[in-house]
Structure prediction request, 662 residues.
Amino acid sequence: MEEILAALERPPLLRRRDFLKLSIAALVPAFAAACRRGPKAREINFFNWSNYIGKRTLPEFEKRTGIRVNYEMFSDEDEMFAKLRTGVHGYDLMVSDDYQVPKLRALGLITPIPEGAVTGLANLEKRFLDPPFDPGLRFTVPYLWGTTGLGFNKKHVSRPSSWRVLWDEKYRGKMTVLDNVRDGIGCALLALGLPTDTDKPEHLAQAKELLVRQRPLIKHYTSATYVDELVSAEAWISQGWSGDVMLAVRENPDIDYAIPDEGSFLYVSSLVLPAGSEHREEALAFMNYSLLPEVAAEVSNTVGFATPNEKARKFLEPALLKDTRVFPDPKTSARLRFYGTLAPETEELWARTWQEVKVS
Amino acid sequence: MRSPFDRSMSWLIRGRRQAASQLLLLPTSVWLALFLMVPLALLLAVSFLKRGAYGALLWQPTLANYHRTFSPSYLPILGRTFAFASATTLACLLLGYPFAYFLSQFVRGRRARDFMLVVLMLPFWTSFLVQIYSWMIILGREGLINNALLGLGLVAEPIQFLNTRGSLLLGLTYSYLPFMILPLYSSLSKLPRSYIEASKDLGAGNLQTFLKVTLPLSLPGVMGGTILTFIPCMGDFLTAEFLGGPKTYLVGNLIQNQFYQAADYPFGSALSAVLLVLLFAGLMAYRWVENLGATSLGRAKG
Prediction:
């Protein structure tokens, strides 16, 4: 009994990709926001990942600019995308993951940033200035970044050097894999040494074959519960996102994070402007504000994901900046890559492949 | 004195039975038309469309989504879901019947009955996620059961309960048990005590009375409970998402994935349509059998 109480009292692990698909109810606030907007009100309706902002970020912004922020969170990028596509309007500012950006663009769900409206991009690290998902940063302002890797329990597993560990019979039933098309198939392609943005059906067939063999070995596919599972040693190895695994590291010192030798993905979450917004200027004001070094550092310090803002580094907590699990060392960095953009037909092929793995 | 409401109602109904009943049905009919029939028609329409770039809908009629639904990769999912829903319904029936029987036949006093019914419903006043996470705490490798087993020295290694077929079945049974018990209870509590007494007067034992009187008269409750359990079970995806494993991917998960992850509305709609048609056909078959039974019973009496 005590254990139940203790577990319930433990503050729920807030996490970025917290799976609360029940939050269909979240449509209601969006609707309310849409009704609420007055003609002259200085406000923005901001749609962000859960647990993805600094403690002081919003109050400070409101104080400085007098713009009110109606803050709303999502916990699953597919949910966010589905919401936008089914025509939920009323958002003025959003955070989107890089591989969603071409989709959002193609469907006309986001609008370009007016030329010269955003200053402070020079504060960013060079590699984020011209990313493949948005050359020249015409639609996005990089906000935070992270990597895909393996969270593991040091008590039971030695530091994995290859993605192949996810096929190791020894850990049968004690591994979880992200329920995400790009990471799920991506790790198989990395293990096979194939290009991770491939459009070749034979590459995907090879990946599928490998993944079908993996399926009976893993505990389940999850992008949501693995932090808890790592903490409670329910899972010993979890494919996961750096910031999330770091939450587990803070809870349980036996947990560590590794990026396998085959390399891995680096992803950027960016601020974007949803189409149909009526508070463009206020949203741009927030974009500019987010690029201030102190502000960017405070966000990164709070949530444990890395900031793309180079000038923000001197405001980061030294322990965070030194942590190679958050800011990988140059050798590991060289092995990181963007997901890369898939053509629409290729994207469908990937989605189908992943479905077929899951139902196999 | 009759209230103005009573008077107006009796004016409404007197001599105008049909018109009045139609008027009274109007709000419900409008509601059903707007929020059930229209969405269903849309769902059906979308299921014949093509998925375009990044999940856009293309107005090109096709049967491909149905072909895919019945293809060898996806068809087994329907069978698996059917198996889980049937097993859950059976487990609910086996657990729920004794409970409802006990409550209706042996618990005297309204208060005690109400109390037990409230206790039964209590978990459903908490969030579904809290319920699921509680199961995770109980079933986990370092959870209550495993710790107890390890502590007693009954096992050397924790047993993997979570994310197996067993944990999914447990979770589903837990979720849907009240939907089985309530109709059973309502049907059993309506059973006239005099029937049972008559049966015993005529020399039947307890078992015989149960089999020949109680059980047949409670069958409507059994059917009601079965329908209320089985149908939502066929569409469940959240329980499977949290308590299921890689081998328990259900049709509900598949449909949910089409609307979120894969952004394939046409395929998701086709799957939903097939599921609906199957469930509807099942219900119709049940009614047909029921009517058949009723007619043959009537004939036997006549």
Chain B is about 75% helix and 0% strand.
